[in-house]
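user: can you give me the structure for this one chain? tokens are fine.
assistant: on it. calling the predictor now.
[tool input]
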Amino acid sequence: MTAADGGTGPAGPERGPVAPGSGWPDDPATPATPVAHDAAGVRALAAGAGGMTELAARQSVCRACPRLVEWREQVAVVRRRSYAGERYWGRPVPGWGDEHPRVLVLGLAPAAHGGNRTGRIFTGDRSGDVLFASLYRCGLASQPTSVSAADGQQLVGTRIAAAVRCAPPANKPAPAERETCAPWLSAEFALAMPDLAVVVCLGAFAWQALWPVLRGAGFAGTRPRPAFGHGAEVLARFPDGEPAGQQLRILGCYHPSQQNTFTGRVTPAMLDGVFGRAAQLAGLGPGPAAA
């Protein structure tokens, strides 16, 4: 068995993070991909990426935040009992999906036993189960499930990213870690912006992380910061004289976490309302659930 198969034969799966270029499905990096070791390195490598694939590769090998590096790699060694027979990705989880998206879905950070295990954001955990089912119903994903990087799932005019690329302890990145990681998001946003029409923020953390990115990209009308809420909708425009007609709709959506879905704070119909609206605004057509 190979790294792509999740194992190494009779001795069982290898422990620890997957080496770049070793055969993991859709791994964007190679052994030659440059690695950021601090905040300055993140800024330089994010700014210098020539396209989405190169940017994703650089995101996927970042080692700028010692606490997050230690945690994500520890999880990849210890592993959850239910996944003890699987190899864990154990690296930063890059943005994934359409390289010229009309819709950008922004989350908080990868889950320790979800994206940190599978190598793809919102893949292999309960939040992703709910999220991808809604994306599929609304015409933004090719299938209703996302369980591994080799499952054939494709996003339709859509890209998914996280404000912080490494799984954090207790799902809570520190403010300094969020700031260190921010240039990865800014660079991804800049590469997507020529085609981008809608950003969907999953939760208040993602909502807060987006506004500095918008200001840095030159969008006007983002101060004071609008309040987050499910179904919140904000129009962001360039000032007069900037690219003609360039504007974005920013949509708020409660995060499809287990806590929110189990308590009924967010339901499939609520998610469909937001993603159906996103599809419609992006010119991708309302999905079946929104029709």
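assistant: here you go. The two ends are 45 Å apart (CA to CA). The CA atoms of residues 254 and 265 lie 8 Å apart.
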